[in-house]
Specification:
Helix 2 crosses helix 14, helix 4 runs parallel beside helix 5 and helix 11 packs across helix 12. Helix 4 links the parallel strand 8 and strand 9. The strands form 2 sheets. Strands 1, 2, 3, 4, 5, 14, 15, 16 and 17 form a 9-stranded mixed beta sheet that branches. The protein has an 8-stranded parallel beta sheet with strand order 6-7-8-9-10-11-12-13. The chain is of the alpha/beta class. It is built from 14 helices and 17 strands. Bound molecules: zinc ion. The site of zinc ion has 7 residues, from loops.
């Protein structure tokens, strides 16, 4: 691959250690890495992309998703339900998924993310009906071209054992752990620049046993991979924890080895001051999912208090059955707006929201090689058209979270151009949309 020169950007929001903002600068990409940044870099041997009139940022990082749910957006029975009722509406539909549904829905979700400027995403897949496997989503991501952190989720407590999911969607715990080992050995790459890193992720403390939570943590540490689950999502979740486990979710997590810099929890809407302090001390990460929290009426996560305490926070679009959009730039805007609703107009700036969406997410996922534009970092770069209609008249086009646009013009992942001029370069998106809509129609029959 020849070098790429991104030339003469109006503004580069580097999100580097000094949060430098550069005017009229170039970026040279070589071998998937940012090789140079500066004015008038030599162009010999380079493909050239003109970035005049554009704002350049690190690729956005999505820390929580259930890609398979793009096949169950806006399901009528789940549109107005709270979390537990919402799950019970959707489980029987998800039980009919197979490998085709997993692959196609993941491609749609990944393309949707890419078009919103996201270069690195995690995914949380916790049901494997009809022969579907984590492998299906990994194959999808390798075609779409995003950097991918799939997590092997699981549920083991079905209806007959007092759980929420139907028995057909739960697995026995020995098989869960064996399959975690299989996918880690097959796909996990610990090296810098890795395109795939696997995590271990029981669905939530209320869908697996205490033993599985503990064993999952031991397995993840043995294999050197990260841990992920849902935690403290809403009031029902806290009440369940107090009743079944006799403690709050933060205590439960700590007791079972689920705190540390190799752990990140989704939502954490209801963390109290002690739990925030625990997460800060233990370097435990949080995936903040503001649109999903609004959609399910879960509340406003205390992100201002978390950031002030030193908790590592990233953003997540969450699954498309509870958002129902997978636009990460829109999520950054929502994160900023919610903190202002709760704490006032100076509670979060547009720059801080974008920082959480880039550098913050990369830190949560343990990717110090991503999330900033600096020499030696991976070439994951989003280019935003500051001449778009949303930005016309803006006095500060780099305040992207305020004025937009919310769709990216060009996106590079590991130096490869995945979006060009607002269109996917890696897959035939129109054909994929047609396939997805056929699958959705079959599920709705
Ligand atoms: Zn979720």
């Amino acid at each position: 691959m020849s070098d790429m020169l991104i030339r003469n950007a109006m503004t580069i929001l580097t999100m580097d250690d000094s949060r430098a903002e550069l005017a009229g600068s170039d970026i040279r990409i070589r071998g998937g890495v940012i090789a140079a940044i500066g004015h008038d870099l030599p162009a010999e041997g380079c493909a050239i992309l003109d970035a005049a009139g554009a704002v350049v940022t690190p690729g956005l990082v999505n820390t929580h998703h259930h890609l398979y749910q793009t096949l169950t957006r806006a399901v009528p029975g789940g549109q107005d339900a709270l979390l537990f009722g919402w799950l019970q509406t959707l489980y029987p539909i998800w039980a009919r998924f197979g490998p085709d549904e997993m692959f196609t829905s993941a491609q749609i979700g990944l393309a949707e993310l890419a078009l919103s400027g996201c270069s690195l995403t995690s995914d949380h897949l916790y049901l494997f009906p009809n022969g579907s496997r984590l492998d299906d989503t990994i194959a999808a991501a390798s075609q779409v071209g995003l950097r991918f952190h799939p997590t092997r989720g699981a549920m083991s407590i079905g209806e007959s054992a007092g759980g929420l999911p139907p028995d057909s969607l739960v697995e026995d715990e020995a098989s869960i752990l064996n399959d975690c080992i299989r996918v880690i050995d097959a796909f996990h790459d610990p090296n810098p620049g890795a395109m795939v890193r696997v995590g271990v992720a029981p669905c939530s403390p209320f869908s697996v046993t205490r033993d599985l939570m503990r064993d999952a943590a031991l397995l993840a540490r043995d294999k050197g991979v990260m841990l992920h689950t849902h935690l403290a999502e809403n009031e029902e979740d806290i009440a369940y924890s107090l009743e079944k486990f006799g403690c709050r979710p933060g205590q439960y997590a700590q007791d079972l080895g689920w705190t540390g810099d190799d752990v990140w929890h989704a939502h954490c809407v209801k963390l109290d001051a002690q739990e925030i302090s625990l997460f800060a001390r233990s370097r435990t990460g949080v995936a903040h999912c503001p649109c999903s929290n609004c959609r399910l009426g879960s509340g406003i996560a205390p992100v201002r208090a978390m950031r002030d305490a030193g908790v590592r926070v990233g953003l997540g679009v969450d699954g498309s059955a509870s958002n129902d959009v997978g636009n990460l730039m829109a999520e950054a805007r929502q994160a900023m707006l919610l903190q202002r609703v709760q704490n006032g107009a100076d509670a979060m700036s547009a720059r801080e929201a974008l920082e959480i969406a880039t550098r913050g997410g990369a830190q949560v996922l343990g990717r110090d090689d991503c999330g900033q534009i600096a020499v030696g970092k991976r070439a994951d770069i989003a280019i935003w058209d500051a001449r778009a209609v949303e930005n016309a008249g803006s006095w500060d086009p780099a305040a992207l979270v305020l004025a937009g646009p919310a769709k990216v013009r060009d996106l590079f992942v590991e130096g490869r151009q995945v979006v060009a001029g607002g269109r996917m370069t890696t897959i035939d998106l129109d054909a994929t949309i047609t396939r997805q809509n056929k699958l959705a129609a079959r599920l709705a029959e």
